[in-house]
Design a protein that fits this description.
Number of domains: 3
Number of strands: 20
Largest sheet: 9 strands, mixed
CATH architecture of the largest domain: Roll
Distance between the termini: 33 Å
Strand content: 25-35%
Length: 375
């Protein structure tokens, strides 16, 4: 944790003591999953039921997601008939990440057969690549252009730009194209243009495309799983939207990320800041349920560091999200007090209770990652 972060937390503690902040609960935050009450509905019926519950059809973001859902299906759905609906449906788009119309285009890419391509500048020209490739990228905010020399997938690059520099750069004229190329310093970098034959129903930005080649006589405009294995995770099958399958609804807009590395609390804090959004924090009982559900379907043993730390001056506990600890789930219902406590918090995998531990002890940890949506 750097000096700026430490100073920020100190100022937060002083303001908390003065009663400056007042926090209220929000709608479901951490992503969790719920089986549908419908019996093997169509894709459209599943969509309507999920939306009526302020949820969405399943979006898969990476291999970790695919393994989790495979495990969730194995433990919660006894029948393999019909598979489980996914939110991916055929809806061709070519769009800038900020939603601007494509009025200037220097590419001839044509996506077919489930294709997804993202645009980059390479050798001073536009070239398309798999969106899951990792490249440097360019952000912009107004007239400020920032070339970020960190390798990320297109969606990760978009998230970084939105969190730090406005958005991935869009190009609307020859003059702006020349400007972007000039700022790019002859490197290869993502710009904000995506071409996709398919979209996720909730408009989440995902480069996960593990297609399974299946020949289906019906119009294959929707997708579902079929007999996923825990070791391999979920494959994507194209299917007609009117056939039937099981359904799972997803709630929340922040993903839980299980990190297997053993790091100290401060190194875990830095890792989450650099690679995701932050160390995970738990706002309320729904967040706690989401963490329990995720840990119940993962094979990594804890305990795990979470974004919980105690002030060595004032003695109370705060989250690294700059949020006070309202809801809590301490072991035996007792909040650790100075001077008998360690100063960092973990969550256990046996009972999902929180404990205080020595911040210097290396442990796996939980990050959280905000989902990026196309608006």
């Amino acid at each position: 944790m750097n000096i700026t972060t430490t100073t920020k937390m100190t100022l937060l503690l002083l303001m908390l003591c003065s009663g400056f902040f007042h926090f209220t609960s929000a709608s479901p935050r951490l992503r969790h999953f719920q089986l549908s009450e419908l019996i093997e509905p169509s894709w459209q019926d599943t969509l309507e039921e999920c939306q009526s519950n302020n949820a969405s059809l399943l979006t898969l973001y990476d291999d970790e997601d695919a393994r989790f859902i495979a495990n969730f299906i194995a433990k919660n759905i006894t029948s393999s008939i019909g598979g489980v609906w996914l939110g991916l449906h055929r809806s061709p788009i070519t769009t800038w990440s900020n939603g601007e119309p494509v009025i200037f285009n220097q590419t001839s890419v044509d996506v077919t057969d489930g294709g997804q391509k993202c645009e980059a500048i390479q050798n001073n020209t536009w070239q398309s690549f798999n969106c899951s490739d990792k490249k440097h990228f360019m952000c912009y905010n107004g007239n400020d252009y920032t070339l970020v020399n960190i390798s990320k997938t297109w969606c990760q690059a978009l998230q970084h730009c939105k969190n730090n520099h406005g958005n991935l750069v869009s190009i609307n004229s020859t003059e702006q194209n020349d400007k972007v190329i000039g700022e790019g310093e002859n490197s290869s970098f993502w710009i904000g243009l995506m071409h996709d034959e398919w979209q996720w129903e909730d408009n989440g930005c995902s480069t996960f495309r593990r297609w399974h080649d299946e020949r289906n006589p019906e119009s294959p405009n929707c997708t579902r799983t079929w007999r996923p294995t825990i070791s391999d995770g979920v494959n994507i099958y194209k299917y007609g939207c009117q056939v039937t399958a099981h359904s799972i609804c997803a709630h929340g807009t922040v993903r839980i990320k299980v990190i297997k590395k053993n790091l100290t609390w401060e190194d875990a804090y830095d890792y989450c800041q650099d690679h995701h959004s932050r160390l995970l924090w738990i706002e309320d009982g729904e967040d706690q349920h989401a963490v329990e559900q995720w840990l119940n379907h993962t094979d990594v043993s804890g305990p795990f560091w979470i974004g919980l730390r105690q002030s060595r001056v004032f003695g109370f506990w705060i989250w690294t999200s700059d949020t006070t600890v309202g809801y809590s789930n301490w072991k035996n219902g007792v909040t650790p007090k100075l001077h008998m406590s360690h100063h960092c918090g973990v969550i256990n995998t046996e009972d999902y209770k929180w404990n205080d531990e020595d911040c210097r002890y290396p442990r796996p940890f939980l990050c959280e990652e905000e989902i990026i949506y196309f608006k």
